[in-house]
Specification:
about 425 residues, alpha+beta, PmbA/TldD fold, 2 domains, ten-stranded mixed β-sheet, six-stranded antiparallel β-sheet, 10 helices, 24 strands, about 20% helix
Length: about 425
């Protein structure tokens, strides 16, 4: 890597070399029976150069031909992509607990044992199609640039997931746990899933209309995707964010506080610096409903006359391979501050409404503007604080700026969700729901 950086430094004004290696094991069970065991190894090196204010980029799966990689990066300068910013000179980052040696010792047998344990518990609790799995990955990354940065980090991630599928529906109740090393899925989480599944055995056809909706973690992608888009410096620059002129204004309910905290190493995936080498920090985004700031990578910070907030990451919802893509603004450590309400209390406050456990078509609607139109699958219909049964063929639609201005209460428990986010259940009122009847 050092030799490549030296070569690139002579050919361009600035240069950056990014390398990563990742090994992973995963097992999956379908209908409570072993379905698959996978072992993967991924590695690669990418090169970014800046010359005369233009960006060049190339990548390789091995570093056998440094000159060829450099020539590819130089050739890509003909795309005339502007890069009027300086790479950071970061030398050190905050010390974080990102790797647990126990993760490297996990085998497929360990993952099989945990998956099978979950299946056995669920089989005794619910009569549905049971899906389960477990996974572990260990990765390392290194960033060097021509301004003197030389940063490296090792990460581990392990987790398990499970679902109980309603017969003939293809959808069901799902839960997941993630940590730096394998932890057993808590019994109370498994019981929560099984209890909700039992209460959804009866199908009902309620009338549609505006009603209360309880967004559970698996359905929160609908809201989070649009929150992230609306707060991105890229969206502000491209004039597609409705929040560009709303800094300091209330855009959500006072019950909502949202921030991004890469430094919180109580959860897996903590980062001391982003994929451009910019130091990370806790970033307030929404405080009691008030818009506090946007997030930027180096490119869009320069375009907006701002400073990078340390949110330049390689990969997004559409790409999981950091080697093949250039950094862009992204929130990878979003937290929604929990409230004080238990799940039982949230349900008890629904006079008429739906618990949305999963969604179909989360991408539908104008995402930057906050519009959504989703299929509900599964959804549990609630009347007078009690679950009546499962709703089929229902949809919910609206705009997150209206939906999240009408928050009734926020749940007390944080669950893993969309792209590393940690969120509580969220009860909102006045959401438009369409049903078959």
């Amino acid at each position: 890597m050092e030799k490549l950086l030296e070569m690139a430094g002579r050919a361009a004004d600035q240069a950056e070399v990014f390398s990563t290696e990742q090994s992973s094991i995963s097992v999956s069970f379908h209908d409570a029976k072993l379905y698959d065991i996978k072992t993967n190894f991924l590695s690669g090196v990418s090169l970014r150069i800046i010359k005369d204010g233009k960006l060049g980029f190339a990548y390789t799966r091995n570093l056998k031909n440094r000159q060829g990689l450099l020539e590819n990066a130089l050739d890509s300068l003909r795309g005339r992509v502007e890069a009027n910013y300086d790479l950071p000179d970061t030398r050190v980052g905050q010390s974080l607990a990102t790797y647990d040696p126990a993760a490297s010792k996990l085998s497929s047998a360990d993952l099989l044992d945990e998956s099978q344990r979950i299946c056995e518990i669920l089989k005794a609790k619910a009569a549905g199609e049971i899906m389960a799995g477990a996974y572990v990955s260990v990765d390392s990354m290194r960033i060097l640039n021509s301004r003197g940065a030389d940063l490296s980090q090792r990460n581990s991630l392990a987790g398990s997931y499970s679902s109980i599928i309603f017969p003939g529906s293809g959808s069901g109740m799902s839960r997941e746990v993630r940590s730096r090393a394998m932890v057993k899925m808590p019994d109370n989480l498994i019981s929560e899933m099984a209890d909700l599944f039992k209460q959804g055995q009866k199908t009902v056809q309620p009338k549609g209309g505006r009603m209360k909706v309880l967004f559970m973690p698996e359905s929160m992608i609908t809201l989070l995707w649009r929150i992230v888009s609306g707060l991105s410096g890229r969206s502000v620059y491209e004039k597609i964010s409705p929040n560009a002129a709303r800094l300091g204004q209330r855009i959500f309910s006072p019950k909502l506080t949202i921030y991004d905290d890469p430094l919180n190493d109580a959860y897996p995936g903590a980062r001391a610096w982003d994929d451009e080498g910019v130091p990370c920090k806790k970033l307030p985004l929404i405080e009691q409903g008030v818009l506090k700031g946007f997030f930027y990578d180096l490119k869009y910070a320069e375009k907006m006359g701002a400073a990078s907030t340390g949110h330049g990451y390689r990969g997004d919802i559409w790409s999981g391979d950091p080697v093949t893509v250039k950094p862009g603004p992204f929130l990878g450590h979003l937290f929604m501050e929990p409230g004080t309400a238990s799940l039982a209390r949230l349900i008890s406050q629904i006079d008429r409404g739906i618990i949305i456990e999963g969604v179909m078509g989360a991408h539908s609607g104008n995402i930057p503007n906050g519009d959504y139109s989703i299929g509900i699958g599964p959804g549990l219909y609630v009347e007078n604080g009690r679950i009546v049964g499962r709703v089929k063929d229902a949809m919910a639609a609206g705009n997150i700026y209206q939906t999240l201005s009408n928050v009734v209460e926020v749940g007390e428990t944080l669950y893993p969700s969309f792209e590393g986010a940690r969120v509580p259940p969220l009860l909102c009122e006045g959401v438009s729901v369409t049903t078959k009847s």
